[in-house]
Amino acid sequence: MTIRLITPEAALAQDMADVVRVFFGDAPIEFCDAPIEFCDAPIEFGEGDAGLAIVHRVDTGLDVFFSGDVSVERAFFPAGRDELEKKRLRKRAVKLGLYGLLKKLTGQHPPWGSLTGIRPSRLYYEALSEGLDPVRTLVDVFDVTPGRAELLRALAGMQVGLRDMPANAFDLYVGIPFCKTRCAYCSFSSGEIGDGKLVAPYVRALLREIALSAEIVREKGLRLRAGYIGGGTPTAIPRAALEEVFLAAKEAFPGAVEWTVEAGRPDTIDREMLAMLKSAGATRISVNPQTFSDETLRRIGRAHTGEQTVEAYLLARELGFEDINMDLIAGLPGEALPDFSRTLDRTLELAPDSATVHALAIKRSSRLHEEMHVSSGGHARAAEGEAAAMIDLARARLTGAGYLPYYLYRQKYMAGNLENVGYARPGKACLYNIGNMEEVASVLAVGAGAITKWLFDRALRIERAPNVKNLGVYIDRVDEMVGRKRRLILET
């Protein structure tokens, strides 16, 4: 299906495209910002829903959206507001108007209503700060389903006291962008470890970035709250190399109350690796099954079995790890609700301290996207509505077992327009995840593809300093990456 969006508001075209994708996924969108009579003939619904034309007309204080005989009007009255607030409210009105048209046109009610952002909890806290009932606001204004709005209420309850950052504190992300193999759904800035030739030069560059970044922190008088070593799969690199990075980070940024290491794939974990992580000071690790179906694991490119996940998890418990997370993915290719239910059964039997449930997101740079849209391969995507049933089942089963939602975020191209949710037992919520996903903590990030995010003016403004993604370029330009951070943190 191709969608033509005819609008005089070119500056808002991408915001409108985000709304269109809520209903039509990553269908191609064509823009025309000229008056309709000067655009090519608008396409309309044809055989097999081949195309759709959406027309946006602007009158004084009123936006009109229509397609064929279906239309929606949305009023906008910005009196008494400053210019920045007017701009924000105008964008909201346009998105709500288009959302209303597409809801009428398709008969769909997306679980997150008109929301297109990554962090729906932001609107929850915004309504709360204005003295409003945040659940009613989300349901009445943004058409969020009551179940999703209540999910945010539960999440906010779990975050009480954990969103508040101590003065002059920051969180740290250390990126190790290597994996044994590349998962079919992966679009992260990571690569297969291959012959390993890049590992040593990458570690040297990373150690330099850590040391130089520590100078910035000392000049600013900052202290670390929570550290997170992620990837990729950090445990994919040699144990001695990972230990060197971990100890260097702890020495450069002392005092953290939490250190998470993504042990991730069970085929990268053995007794020696886990013992090193424990000795180095990891307080929290992830051992991620994604699924316990061996057939699915092979299909998505994971070079391990479900039983290896169990063995790695039990070994971590044996060695004294008291805070273990497991990641699960709903909507994996070829899986139906009974398959996902069996994965939940096994997860609950093992009783990790937290479990993160992801709705599959098929990004454009992933192999799954290639199979679906380019080579028309047999990706065996979950049936319509199946992913939603999986997500709902996970919520019911996990909360019934005493886990509570503590952070949530959304991505583009997610199955069913759903969400990723971290569940944890009381006292086991990950501080780094809350600070990063809720954007209440400044994050100093080192490594290829890592993005430093710094909060200013009590978090009313966030500035970013991204590192280059390419490993070779990063190795050659690490001093430049540090310079970006220095300008951001000390000079902005």
Domain count, please report it.
3
CATH superfamily of the largest domain: Aldolase class I
CATH class designation of the largest domain = Alpha Beta
Low-pLDDT regions: 365-370, 372-381
Q: Count helical runs.
A: 16
Strand order of the largest sheet: 14-15-13-12-11-10-9-6-16
Report, as a whole number of angstroms, the end-to-end distance: 45 Å
- According to CATH, what is the topology of the largest domain? TIM Barrel
- Beta strand count: 18
Give the class from helix and strand content and strand pairing.
alpha/beta
Categorize the overall geometry: globular
> What fraction strand?
15-25%
Known CATH architecture of the largest domain: Alpha-Beta Barrel
User: What portion of residues is helical?
Assistant: 40-55%
Oligomer: single chain
What's the alpha carbon Rg, rounded to whole Å? Answer: 24 Å
What's the mean pLDDT score?
89
How does the major sheet shape up? 9 strands, mixed
Structure commentary:
This protein is an alpha/beta fold. It has 16 helices and 18 strands. It has a nine-stranded mixed beta sheet with strand order 14-15-13-12-11-10-9-6-16, with helices on both faces. A five-stranded mixed beta sheet has the order 2-1-3-4-5, covered by helices on one side. A hairpin with a 2-residue loop joins strand 3 (51-59) and strand 4 (62-67). Helix 3 (121-129) packs across helix 4, helix 6 packs parallel to helix 7 and helix 7 packs parallel to helix 8. The longest helix is centred in the first third of the chain and has 24 residues, at 83-106. Residues 365-370 and 372-381 have low confidence and may be disordered.
